Amino acid sequence: MRPTRILLLRTLVMLSLLGLTGQAAVAKPWWMRGIESNENDFLPPDVAFRAGARIDGGVLQVRWVIADGYYLYRDKISVAAESPGVAISGISLPRGVVKTDPYLGTQEIFTQQVEGTIAYRRLDYGAHPLQIKVTYQGCAEAGLCYPPITKVLAPVGAAPLASETSPRWERYAIIGGAFAFLLAGFVLRKGRNLPLPVT
Predict the structure, then answer these.
(1) Dihedral (C-alpha) 27, 28, 31, 35: value to the nearest 10 degrees?
(2) Number of domains in the chain
């Protein structure tokens, strides 16, 4: 009687483990848990293509992290200055992978991640927060192409302070003001007769 119970217990444990591994094989990704859906669902654009920016020395770095099964078109990525008093050049991107797209023909694409470099110049000496506008477009390998996405990004990193980039005229104004103050002191003293101390 006892060996039969042990055998039955082992059989139940094995069946439950097989059931768990079977569930793991068809488990939904974290963003779809708790949602009744079919296998043709697509990620929201902000999950499929996560964009961020940071300041690295004198340039801006913009980075996209691309979900598995998704890609960005190289030629559909563009940038523009959003803050007043900021001048930027176009974005410099690495070469992509060539893909023949049924809708757009032969295109260069990025998968996994891509980082672009943007040269910029502050004309406001740090008076406004630095923001850039990025536009990009991508698709899912399963067949969905997203409309162009535009986001305003505030780069992470210490922007130069206005005092660190103070213009040359500001320094001249401070020196000139100190000189004018000293000169006014001499001119005013010249007309005054101070009594000498009596000894």
Answers:
(1) -120
(2) 1
